[in-house]
Amino acid sequence: MTRKLSWFTALLLGTATVAQAVPQPAAPVAPQAAVQTALPVANDLLMPNAPLRASQLLFNQVAPPPGSMTLRGTVPTSQIEFGVRSDEVVTRALLTLNYRPSPALIPTLSQLKVYLNDELVSLITLTADQLGKENQAQLAIDPRFIGDFNRIRLELVGHYANVCENPANSTIWLDIGKESKLDLTLQKLPLKNDLSHFPEPFFDSRDSRPLQLPMVFRSAPDLQQQRAAAILASYFGSKAQWRGQTFPVLYNQLPKEQHAVVFATNDQRPDFLKDMPPVDKPTVTMVSQPDNPYEKMLLILGRDDKDLLTAVEGIAQGELLLRGDSSTVDNVKLLAPRQAYDAPNWVRTDRRTTFGELTQYQNQLQADGLQPNPIALTLNLPPDLFLVRARGIDMDLIYRYTSPIQQDGSRLAVHLNNQFMQDYPLTPKDTAAKQMLHIPLIQGLQDSSRQLTIPALRLGVVNQLRFNFDYANTFIGGTADGRCETVTAVDHHVVIDDHSSIDFSGYRHYIEMPSLRAWANAGFPYSRYADLAQTLVLVQPKPNNSEVTTLLNAIGSIGAQTGYPALRVQVSDDWSKAKNTDADLLMIGSIPDDLQDDRKINALVAAARSWINMPTRQVSAPNIRASAADRAVESQTTISSRGPMGVIVGFQSPLFDQRSVVALLADSPRGWDLLNNAMQDSGKRAAIFGAASIIRESGVYSLRVGDTYYVGHLPWWERLWNMLATHPVWLAVCATLVVLLFALMTWRLMRMVSRRRLAEDEDDE
Questions:
Q1: C-alpha–C-alpha distance, residues 135 and 23, integer Å
Q2: Handedness of CA 308, 310, 312, 315 (dihedral sign)
Q3: What are phi and psi of 458, to 5 degrees?
Q4: Three-class SS of residue 268?
Q5: Which residue in 138, 248, 520, 642 has the most C-beta neighbors within 10 A?
Q6: What counts of helices (H) and strands (E) characterise the chain?
Q7: Alpha-carbon distance 564 to 343, whole Å?
């Protein structure tokens, strides 16, 4: 039996196609590709007429930053990860590597090993004519070995000497270029109509691409249908999170080659559902599309709009109960109201938060290797957390590590947002340690000659806490008497304990507004309540599909940032009714006529005509505070044009002082596309800040202009201190007055004491 298995293994490995690298000439020309034979194909998985799609994973997108890889003697491995959707299977896979090995490596003894899910699938032997030059290799991967979640690991076996070799020598390296890629051919699989796998296939966690889920209506949706779609969009946004999400809206038609969500009542149904029997309860059904059995429809059905809303709430709160091809939602009760700042994706501000609560995947707080990879945690904070006067953030840090051989300078370095904060030595005897770490917001570094003051660490909405375990590895390669001693390198193991914690409790909530940066990155102020309980969306009476798409994208983005569906969001098209609602307003499509002359609004776009207020001095950096003089309105300009444009405007609500308004405006369908693309693109979203953002074909331009206001609460003495902190002259004047007042009071007190003593002396006489 053992002999049969050995022959079978040899036969299987022999059929694997491995393309050797072709040497690259010294001249700077394009790298030559390896001679490529036929790629392995999973023939047993191929189906006639099944849709195929090509996917290309570039290393500059899927590899760790900056996208290229450098394999060294002490860090010989690096990897990329990718997933395969449940409704697809890989039929072909081709890995293209662009690499440059060190010229000091010994040919043949040095190799590059390629692993798929920890199984060796290919080997590149480095030859003399490849060293120091750019090379390209194409490696075919058998698609039968590709699963749901996959990891391609590259490992360098590098040698520069036959004897007395030091693995830490700097001449051992091999660079993998950013242009390396993995080409996949994927085939659609027929799926059963089974809701027990929901939210698959409409959202698949294995798919790292932005979620694009079309939503279909019979015609322009009314308020209840828009609210139901917005809640469902926020639910899918909470699942997509970092991937991004878009929800294109279609009227009475299905998208091509995509899964879709369809809203239909017994009286209002798209034409392709006209033969479906009526329902008598809120119903969620999964069916194939009429013309494409490989694409599914999620049908949200009901007798009326109220049933649609109940069905969506059932999905958001009871997805674990969905099963079969159809489920009815009998009842949904929202019992306990959400508390402010309790979004699941945010760090707790009412108590200490343990690191275990912040982890996003298993074994995130562990690392291994000669030089373990950094351990990173993401901290999402409410944007209005007031830390101006805070002395620092307290963190309890518990960690374990393999002991160094000797006291050699190995250390744990802690970074916040790529700024170094503190380090701790890794001692050779202790295998466990516990430290109280104080994250300083104002830190001083001092030596014998000078004092250096580092500005306050800027905590934003999304922050990264990184722990680097830096080992000073020592390898013996030879001695003075000619003996050669070698040491086999042993991997180090490091762990940050789950019970480590960080404390953001006890801080007040207070922020200067308008702040489109807080809205773009955290959905603030609407996300103050994760279920959007104090949010009112003002829409158009008869919205076009671009406006409804913008509504769904905006609410879906907030769901992605909070991690919770917007179950209590309100939607209205009546401005007179909105006047009496104490809520933060999100306006889509236009600003009511009686607000358009309000001086707080600094930009407006309508059809081909638009106007904008310009400040006295524009501060281009989003993290630099602008003074009132710089924000003062210098001019107002009105321009008419046929080019597309989108505008995002933030201003204080004219109805309630503690409420804010964000208006999403565009002048054409292309303008709405620009606006939606800016909300989903991380680079363009980073350029949204201030009181107004102008979005054109050339990009995003933001303005800090006009008056500001504050949202939140501070005691009067903290508000006074905060005001004086930004005006050093007035602070000096107040300090002088306080000193004079104290001196006057002291002088008066001393005179009273002196007079009393003199009076007592006269009485004694």
A1: 6
A2: negative
A3: -90, 110
A4: coil
A5: 520
A6: 13, 42
A7: 7
Which amino acid belongs to residue 12? L
Least confident of 113-122, 308-317, 638-647: 638-647
Q: What Cα–Cα distance (Å) separates residue 570 from each residue in 7, 220, 313, 549? A: 68, 18, 14, 17
How many residues does the structure list for the chain?
A: 765
pLDDT tens digits for 312-322? 999 999 989 99
Q: Which residues contact 339 (CB under 8 A, 6 or more apart)?
A: 529
DSSP state, residue 195: G
Neighbours of 366 (CB within 10 A): 14
Residue 173 has pLDDT above 80, yes or no: yes
The residue among 216, 209, 178, 214 whose CA lies nearest residue 66 is 178
Q: How far, in Å, CA of 590 to CA of 597, rounded?
A: 13
Cα-to-chain-centroid distance, residue 137: 33
Residue 322 identity (one-letter amino acid): L
Residue range 73-84, pLDDT digits in tens? 888 999 999 999
Paired tokens of 675: 């606006």
SS3 116: strand
- The answer to whether 650 and 519 have CB atoms below 8 angstroms apart is yes
Buried/exposed 4-39: b ≥16 CB within 10 Å, e otherwise? eeeeeeeeeeeeebbbebbebeeeeeebeebeeeeb
- Residue 328 in tokens: 């009815």
Entry pTM: 0.84
Q: Tell me if 57 sits within 8 A of 185, measured CB to CB.
A: no
pLDDT tens by residue, 407-465: 778 888 888 888 888 888 888 765 455 666 655 554 433 333 333 333 345 677 888 88
How, if at all, do strands 181-188 and 88-101 pair? antiparallel
Structure tokens at 26: 């010294």
Q: Which two tokens stand for residue 6?
A: 């050995």
Distance of CA 325 to the CA centre of its chain: 34
